[in-house]
Amino acid sequence: EPEVTQTPSHQVTQMGQEVILRCVPISNHLYFYWYRQILGQKVEFLVSFYNNEISEKSEIFDDQFSVERPDGSNFTLKIRSTKLEDSAMYFCASTAGTGKVNEQFFGPGTRLTVL
Amino acid sequence: GNSVTQMEGPVTLSEEAFLTINCTYTATGYPSLFWYVQYPGEGLQLLLKATKADDKGSNKGFEATYRKETTSFHLEKGSVQVSDSAVYFCALRNAGGTSYGKLTFGQGTILTVHP
């Protein structure tokens, strides 16, 4: 069964460093998402990506964040200069469409720890 | 904007007990409603969904009914098992239009079932 994969499973970094979180969505999907969950808090939407551009982003997704689909299979989230408050679990998701019948499939997440 | 509120957790039950996890929502239009489950070390998996008022979603013995009049989508199971121990997330999505399918999640409820 096709699945969304994410690497690494855990990333530890120093404050101010750049990190890139990687995702491989399901191959025939067209819409891609990043969500995050700070420990003990809600899963929050960060950004959606369709047709090689950002389609929607939340207020969390500021200039420190960027997304890219560099090669038609990977979907990456870059944090340019990490802050302590970026420590969270980051989930990637993908779906074939945005209609009522379309399910979003999630990856297992990357736990980011900023020291 | 959209929001989802889940009952506070964690919830601890004995095997074969009845489970209810409350979920209420605020949304514009006619959202689709979802329950996702996250087992330890895994990503979010869709448990069940309902796309219009009075629909009942069901899967693996879990049920939830879309109640527009009370803006609720409570999760129930008649007899829980140890293997149901996980984190449960209620979520909503506005289909189509300019939403690009983003999900709005509740804060999650940790369920632990003891033998």
Structure report:
The complex is a heterodimer of chains A (115) and B (115). Chain A has 115 residues and is mostly beta strands. Chain A is built from no helices and 11 strands. Chain A has strands spanning 5-7, 10-13, 19-24, 31-37, 43-50, 53-57, 65-68, 75-79, 88-95, 105-106, 110-114. In chain A, strands 2, 4, 5, 6, 9, 10 and 11 form a 7-stranded mixed sheet that branches. Chain A has a 4-stranded antiparallel sheet with strand order 1-3-8-7, with no helix packed on it. In chain A, a hairpin with a 6-residue loop joins strand 7 and strand 8. The radius of gyration of chain A is 13 Å and the shape is globular. The model of chain A has no long low-confidence stretch (mean pLDDT 93). Chain B contains no helices and 12 strands. Chain B has strands spanning 3-6, 11-14, 19-21, 23-26, 32-38, 44-50, 56-59, 62-65, 75-77, 86-93, 103-105, 109-114. In chain B, the strands form 3 sheets. In chain B, strands 2, 5, 6, 10, 11 and 12 form a 6-stranded mixed sheet that branches. A 4-stranded antiparallel sheet of chain B has the order 3-9-8-7, with no helix packed on it. The radius of gyration of chain B is 14 Å and the shape is globular. The N and C termini of chain B lie far apart (41 Å). The mean pLDDT of chain B is 91. Classes of the chains: A mainly beta (115), B mainly beta (115). The interface between A and B is medium-sized, with 31 and 26 residues.
Secondary structure elements and their pairing?
The complex is a heterodimer of chains A (115) and B (115).
Chain A (H helix, E strand, L loop, with lengths): L4 E3 L2 E4 L5 E6 L6 E7 L5 E8 L2 E5 L7 E4 L6 E5 L8 E8 L9 E2 L3 E5 L1
Parallel strand pairs in A: 2-11
Antiparallel strand pairs in A: 1-3, 3-8, 4-5, 4-9, 5-6, 7-8, 9-10, 9-11
Chain B lengths: L2 E4 L4 E4 L4 E3 L1 E4 L5 E7 L5 E7 L5 E4 L2 E4 L9 E3 L8 E8 L9 E3 L3 E6 L1
